[in-house]
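Input (structure):
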């Protein structure tokens, strides 16, 4: 524990001002001493309140810590108030004078607190005895951490010097609070991780002893600039490196209005900038492509198309001819587009606005002849930027980038997706990252938790280095079963396929051992185009998927647009109830040309590899027959055109509308397979919006009606001897796995990440048991009973830990 230095300052000078100053300096010093010798946070804080109360001659000194999530201020240490309420007394920010300090982020003083309109009485503290109040905020950069309060029994006005003194103390205390919190989080995370590993290893019967390091690190003095930022995890893994800030070389908003003197000269400069930008992008695309053959370089094409868009270019030239300087004309036109994108309700499309902004900034940089901001990046850097645009992707190619921190929240932005494919740990959504993080400062990027630490202690760095090593080893272990079949203990073989959208997903599918693509959501790549892609463009796209999957089977689903997926070129009005509206196959059947173009491309792709075609949102036989008719027309056209296509292509229907499920036995004769889409099936069957968090608890895959309906669909297919696959999220739900297996589903298609764990599950259970479970589960009447029954079943199998982990 800290030993206090005796204060001698008061007697050392006769000048009262100097004496006071000396007294105050020694108080700050002493607090520093306490902190420097601290081993126990609470004890240290208590000691600080004791010393402050004594030296400032107040009856009370208390420290409250603020939790921004709950909006509560909790008493952590006090001298003068009842100690029994430490850790228990919590007040809302809107109440009391202490809360007012947080609201204002400024010191608050009251000579007679009892008369203050914000005074709030907390009887537990016996506080009515104290009249004067002075509270100062504890801050971490500009965020509040807590409040340091002094109170006196008598009415007293604190001098501005005393206010400053208390502020100086508060800033020292803030340091140790930040440090303590950082270590606390680290320990909790480590504990969780350790638990996870242990339980998983147990479930697999390969328990290994993981040494637990509980010794922690004693909280010491905070280093300047230590910081913990919480954002969203966008790409997993850990990185430790030095900050490299990518401040946009030129921001649209920074371009100032300028009139053109020489209009022809400006037009020429603009045209050269367009040319230079196109060349830059082509070069980048080639480099990225060479590095990651499967990377989704179609995004470069989408941007380049914009550069080739006559009306876009004409609009800018028009402005120049009307007298605007070239860069100002670009700014104006691009800003209009960006705003239009920002107003869209689809997140994916909103994020496309970033691509447009990038084109604009690239053009402006070329017009102004500015340097590329990506120069001077050292190996092992952690790039910090507001947004990573396509122009910045070349930095990813250097292979030496440690991590990425983004201010924007774009988890689905192209750059984030690419960062993921390059396996670069990435945290997004840190709005103030550029403002807070300094060039060259050390940072840790925790891409699993979505947390960033700046200037961490050596101990913290060591902890993370160790975590990083273990994390890699753990992942390698999970992937070890990559080439083993998904086969039950008694030999029932199931196929595990991947659900994919963008080409980038293929890497994950391959990495996690997918045996093919069970669901290719074609609407996702379509969203990136300016118009419906042509037959040739689609054929190229599908061919890349087939090649990317090493010619393993690929099920291509025709467009499932509408609901929450609107490409800009599909002029759809907003609907009251889009999930029950004009979506999916309904759109396809009414836009026959578009539909036929897609079907022609799919049929032609069938010559390249093993392709099946799948119709979404089928609700009855009429729709199915009409879709098949158009498919036949497409085939006949290809025949006439003399183009190669797959004459035996298998045709499937998604079973995701309850009416289709009810008609399964009548429908199966007209298709080659069913694919059950539980995401929609559950929402339509239970009347629960799959995207609405308010009713999320009602969205229940373990509802008995869901199992009964799936059983009926599978039974109908069984009678006709046709295969059934499942491609909704339920396919990756381990608790559902036994009954689904037992019912006879032969293919499960899921987000690639889940393939290894589902495979492990299947490899640890007997099919005979799964069959019994399937029979019994459909007889159960309530969700509770279904859940209880399934938990019991997996418990008896000894795989409950595995299920717990992923459920
Ligand atoms: C489904 O509805 O279960 C499905 C797989 O399709 P999507 O999630 O694309 O609607
Ligand atoms: Mg669906």
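Output (sequence):
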């Amino acid at each position: 524990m800290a030993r206090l230095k005796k204060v001698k300052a008061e007697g050392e000078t006769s000048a009262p001002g100097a004496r006071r100053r000396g007294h105050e300096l020694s108080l700050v010093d002493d607090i520093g001493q306490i902190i420097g010798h601290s081993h126990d946070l609470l004890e240290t804080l208590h000691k600080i309140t004791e010393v402050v109360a004594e030296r400032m001659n107040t009856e009370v000194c208390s420290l409250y810590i603020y939790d921004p999530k709950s909006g509560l201020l909790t008493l952590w240490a006090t001298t003068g108030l009842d100690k029994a309420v430490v850790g228990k007394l919590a007040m809302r920010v809107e109440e009391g004078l202490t809360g007012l300090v947080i609201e204002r982020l400024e010191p608050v003083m009251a000579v007679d607190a009892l008369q203050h309109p914000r005074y709030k009485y907390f009887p537990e503290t016996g506080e009515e005895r104290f009249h004067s109040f002075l509270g100062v905020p504890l801050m971490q950069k500009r965020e509040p951490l807590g409040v340091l309060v002094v109170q006196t029994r008598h009415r007293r006005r604190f001098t501005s010097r005393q206010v400053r003194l208390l502020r100086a103390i508060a800033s020292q205390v803030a340091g140790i609070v930040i440090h303590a919190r950082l270590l606390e989080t680290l320990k909790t995370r480590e504990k969780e991780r350790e638990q996870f590993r242990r339980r998983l290893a147990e479930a697999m019967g390969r328990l290994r002893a993981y040494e637990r390091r509980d010794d922690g690190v004693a909280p010491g003095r905070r280093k300047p600039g230590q910081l913990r930022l919480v954002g969203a995890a966008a790409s997993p893994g850990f990185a430790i490196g030095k900050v490299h800030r990518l401040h946009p070389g030129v921001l649209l908003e920074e371009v100032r209005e300028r009139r053109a003197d020489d209009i022809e000269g400006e037009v020429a400069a603009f045209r050269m900038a367009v040319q230079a930008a196109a060349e830059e992008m082509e070069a980048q695309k080639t480099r990225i492509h060479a590095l990651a053959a499967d990377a989704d370089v179609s995004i470069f094409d989408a941007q380049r198309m914009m550069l080739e868009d006559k009306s876009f270019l004409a609009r800018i030239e028009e402005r120049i001819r009307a007298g605007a300087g070239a860069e100002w004309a670009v700014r104006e036109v691009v800003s209009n587009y960006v705003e239009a994108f920002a107003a869209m309700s689809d997140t994916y499309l909103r994020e496309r606005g970033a691509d447009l902004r990038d084109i604009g900034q690239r053009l402006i940089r070329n017009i102004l002849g500015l340097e590329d901001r990506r120069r001077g990046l050292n190996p092992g850097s952690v790039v910090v930027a507001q947004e990573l645009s396509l122009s910045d992707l070349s930095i990813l190619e250097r292979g030496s980038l440690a991590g990425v921190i983004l201010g924007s929240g774009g988890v689905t932005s192209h750059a984030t997706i690419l960062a993921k494919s390059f396996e670069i740990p990435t945290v997004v959504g840190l709005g103030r990252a550029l403002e807070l993080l300094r060039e060259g400062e050390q940072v840790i990027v925790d891409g699993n938790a979505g947390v960033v630490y700046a200037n961490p202690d050596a101990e913290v760095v060591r902890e993370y280095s160790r975590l990083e090593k273990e994390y890699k080893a753990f992942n390698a272990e999970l992937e070890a079963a990559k080439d083993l079949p998904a086969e039950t203990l008694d030999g029932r073989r199931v196929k595990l396929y991947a659900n994919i959208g963008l080409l980038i997903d293929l890497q994950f599918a391959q990495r996690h051992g997918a045996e093919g693509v069970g669901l290719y959501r074609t609407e996702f790549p379509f969203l990136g185009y300016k118009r419906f892609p042509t037959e040739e463009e689609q054929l190229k796209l599908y061919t890349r998927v087939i090649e990317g999957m090493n010619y393993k089977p690929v099920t291509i689903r025709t467009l499932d647009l509408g609901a929450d997926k609107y490409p800009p070129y599909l002029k759809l009005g907003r609907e009251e109830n889009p999930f029950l509206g004009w979506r999916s196959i309904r759109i396809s059947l009414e836009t026959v040309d578009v539909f036929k173009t897609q079907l022609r491309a799919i049929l032609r792709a069938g010559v390249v590899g093993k392709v099946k075609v799948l119709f979404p949102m089928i609700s009855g036989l009429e729709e199915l027959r009409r879709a098949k008719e158009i498919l036949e027309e497409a085939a006949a056209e290809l025949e006439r055109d003399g183009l190669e296509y797959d004459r035996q292509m298998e045709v499937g229907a998604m079973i995701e509308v309850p009416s289709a499920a009810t008609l399964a036995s009548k429908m199966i004769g007209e298709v080659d397979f069913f694919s059950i889409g539980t995401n929609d099936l559950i929402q339509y069957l239970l009347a629960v919006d799959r995207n609405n968090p308010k009713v999320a608890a009602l969205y229940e895959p373990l509802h008995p009606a869901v199992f009964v309906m799936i059983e009926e669909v599978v039974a109908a297919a069984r009678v006709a001897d046709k295969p059934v696959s499942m491609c909704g999220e339920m396919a990756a739900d381990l608790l559902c796995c036994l009954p689904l297996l037992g019912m006879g589903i032969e293919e499960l298609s899921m987000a690639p990440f889940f393939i290894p764990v589902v495979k492990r599950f299947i490899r640890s259970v007997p099919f005979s048991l799964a069959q019994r479970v399937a029979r019994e589960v459909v007889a159960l009447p309530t969700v509770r009973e279904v859940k209880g029954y399934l938990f019991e079943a997996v418990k008896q199998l000894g795989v409950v830990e595995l299920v717990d982990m992923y459920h």
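Notes: Residues 616, 656, 677, 679-680 surround magnesium ion (ligand 2) (CB under 6 Å). The CA atoms of residues 379 and 400 lie 5 Å apart.
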